[in-house]
Specification:
The complex is a heterodimer of chains A (about 120) and B (about 110). Chain A is mainly beta. Chain A contains no helices and eleven strands. The chains are: A mainly beta (about 120), B mainly beta (about 110). At the A-B interface, strand 5 and strand 10 of A face strand 5 of B.
């Protein structure tokens, strides 16, 4: 089956610093990657959709200058949380799709971000 | 607006059967998904329904009625490892997944 990896799995950073999270599709080419955020006991919230080689599409309420997304290749997308604050502490999950729609989404294992 | 409703929490006994319901109101419909999510982990795919009826896959079955905007996930022969959250998600007309808040399933011995 399709495998998606995320790195790091856990990260603790100080307020004001930036953190980069990598999402890789290991055995398929991901034309589309999705970034989600999940707060405790809540459902997944889509942050943005990125297509390889083009700018990401951000959901309403998500600051594109704060959450920088790069999808430079068909196997790698990165999410950078800039000037992180404690309220950015969350579980960040990426998923990847090989088709033109998001039907076949394969999820990464997630990254737990804690901002102190 | 778009809305997915499922119970917040359910409790069942090991070896028994449990049914988790999901009702939805979305702009368009391109299929309904069920995912299992253990605490601190990403969701894992369980099932996909786009036509009315029952899809069976081992101990898990998923049912869909598009006219009623309703689905359920049926888990048989419950095992302790089935304790998890179960997320219902609907793909809308823009092929975006709309997620329910999840149902936390607690299995007791």
């Amino acid at each position: 089956g399709a495998v998606v990896s995320q790195h790091p799995s856990r990260v603790i950073c100080k307020s004001g610093t930036s953190v980069k999270i990598e999402c890789r599709s290991l055995d398929f080419q991901a034309t589309t990657m999705f970034w989600y955020r999940q707060f405790p006991k809540q459902s997944l919230m889509l942050m943005a959709t990125s297509n390889e080689g083009s700018k990401a599409t951000y959901e309403q309420g998500v600051e594109k200058d704060k959450f920088l997304i790069n999808h430079a290749s068909l196997t790698l997308s990165t999410l950078t949380v800039t000037s992180a604050h404690p309220e950015d502490s969350s579980f960040y999950i990426c998923s990847a799709a090989s088709g033109t729609n998001s039907y076949e989404q394969y999820f990464g294992p997630g990254t737990r971000l804690t901002v102190t | 607006g778009q809305n997915i409703d499922q119970p917040t929490e359910m409790t069942a006994t090991e070896g028994a059967i449990v049914q988790i319901n999901c009702t939805y109101q979305t702009s368009g419909f391109n299929g309904l998904f069920w995912y299992q999510q253990h605490a601190g982990e990403a969701p894992t795919f369980l099932s996909y329904n786009v036509l009315d009826g029952l899809e069976e896959k081992g101990r898990f079955s998923s049912f869909l009625s598009r006219s009623k905007g309703y689905s359920y996930l049926l888990l048989k022969e419950l095992q302790m490892k089935d304790s998890a959250s179960y997320l219902c998600a609907v793909m809308d007309s823009n092929y975006q997944l709309i997620w329910g808040a999840g149902t936390k399933l607690i299995i007791k011995p």
